[in-house]
Write a structure and sequence with these properties.
Layout lengths: L4 E6 L4 H10 L6 E8 L3 H11 L3 E4 L5 H9 L3 E4 L3 H8 L4 E4 L7 H9 L3 E4 L3 H16 L4 E3 L2 H10 L7 E8 L17 H4 L9 H9 L1 H13 L7 E5 L5 E7 L4 E5 L5 H9 L30 H12 L3 H17 L7 H12 L8 H18 L1
Parallel strand pairs: 1-2, 1-5, 2-3, 3-4, 5-6, 6-7, 8-9
Antiparallel strand pairs: 8-10, 10-11
Helix pairs in contact: 1-11, 4-5, 5-6, 6-10, 6-13, 9-13, 10-12, 12-14, 13-14, 13-15, 14-15
Length: 383
């Protein structure tokens, strides 16, 4: 009998984490769930632990007394507090880390997994936004595979299989354009929370849905692609593709273009990361070529979607700029979700934080974490 792949899933109660467990259910005999984590959705993680016989759980948020009692009944290792994710990764032997945590919280656990020389299925784009140069260097030194879960980066990764990275002319990241693709820029100040959370194609968590609405998500993906595929910013192009069928493309030096297509279902790139280098049969939906009528493309409006322009500028600046951009955006989005600021204030706040921070050109991990903390405090004072 083949050895089962031992997995830790960080952020198992979120959209990507839940979809990862759905992929595990496609072939449960092939996987051993070592650990799961949540920030505060303890009721869901309790169900997940029981269903998948996980051996450990990490909870980074507050725990009520009744929830603590339920966790204790599981008779498994329970890690709590700000260091819970790192403690979970450090305490167990496993084969693959699925990092589906939202935000900067995923950065340090990724570094810990790299030190353990464990392969990483990465949905937490902030890991590479904050410290891409450090992460990629450690992955090369420790021969760790970083397997992208984002649909766009999975598409590029699949398009590059069997290819020489030196032959890349351009990486083309597609974007749906979000709910405000056709909304006039002048009307963005009146956007409501419910409107911003209504994505036309994808079902995602609240934070990433707002990032898609501002197109910051695509900006973060540009930074992630720069590090994952070792290309310059000028070799990365964003195109609006409202149908979300072509997930991304690669243009090569001879003019050939390779693309990966599929329905907008995150389980497809997740399962590919879990099973790589092979493919596993699934019952996920397929494209219906009889009803698909068009595939359209357009350039993004960088004046309307300032967050995308700010992310590209931060990547060009390098150093601590992307870390500050990311942290400022996280807190600004939190302010919008709590209805403390208007939608159009998000890029204004992010830009101010990047401009005001004490730039470090060649940061250490501590420099990056310090810049992240500074940006959060700065934005919280502005909100």
């Amino acid at each position: 009998m083949a050895t089962r792949k031992r997995i830790i899933i960080l952020g198992s109660t979120g959209s990507i984490g839940a979809n990862t467990l759905s992929c595990v259910d496609q072939a449960p005999e092939e996987y051993d769930i070592i650990g799961l984590s949540t920030h505060r959705n303890i009721g869901v993680v309790l169900q997940q632990v029981k269903r998948h016989a996980a051996r450990a759980v990490a909870v980074t948020g507050p725990i009520a007394d009744a929830e603590k009692k339920e966790l204790d009944k599981l008779k498994i290792a329970v890690f709590t507090g700000p260091s819970a994710l790192v403690d979970l990764v450090r305490a167990h032997d496993f084969d693959l880390l699925v990092n589906a945590v939202v935000g900067a919280a995923g950065f340090v656990p990724t570094l810990e997994a790299l030190e353990k020389k464990v392969d990483i299925a990465l949905a937490n784009k902030e890991t590479l936004v904050i410290g891409g140069q450090i992460v990629m260097r450690k992955s090369r030194e420790n021969r760790v595979q970083l397997l992208p879960i984002d649909s766009e980066h999975s598409a590029v990764f699949q398009s590059l299989l069997g290819e020489n990275y030196a032959d890349i002319e351009e990486v083309i990241l597609t974007a749906s354009g979000g709910p405000f693709r056709t909304t006039p820029a002048a009307e963005l100040k009146n956007v409501t929370l419910s409107q911003a959370l209504h994505h036309p194609n994808w079902n995602m968590g609240k934070k990433i849905t707002i990032d898609s609405a501002t197109m910051m998500n695509k900006g973060l993906e540009v930074i992630e692609a720069r590090w994952l595929f070792d290309v310059a910013v000028d070799q990365i192009r964003v195109v609006i593709h409202p149908q979300s069928i072509i997930h991304s493309m690669v243009c090569f030096v001879d003019g050939s273009v390779k693309a990966q297509l599929g329905v907008p279902d995150m389980r497809i790139p997740i399962q590919f990361a879990l099973t790589f280098p092979r493919r596993q049969r699934s019952d996920f939906p397929r494209i219906d070529w009889r009803t698909l009528r068009e595939l359209t493309f357009a350039a993004p409006d960088l004046d309307k979607f300032r967050c995308l322009a700010l992310a590209i500028a931060a990547m060009r600046a390098g150093g601590t700029a992307p870390a500050v951009l990311n942290a400022a955006n996280e807190r600004a989005v939190a302010g919008f979700l709590q209805q403390q600021i208007t939608f159009d204030r998000i890029p204004v706040i992010v830009e101010r934080a990047v401009e005001k921070h004490a730039f470090v050109s060649h940061p250490t991990v501590e420099d990056l974490l310090s810049a992240d903390r500074w940006a959060r405090e700065f934005v919280d004072r502005l909100r």
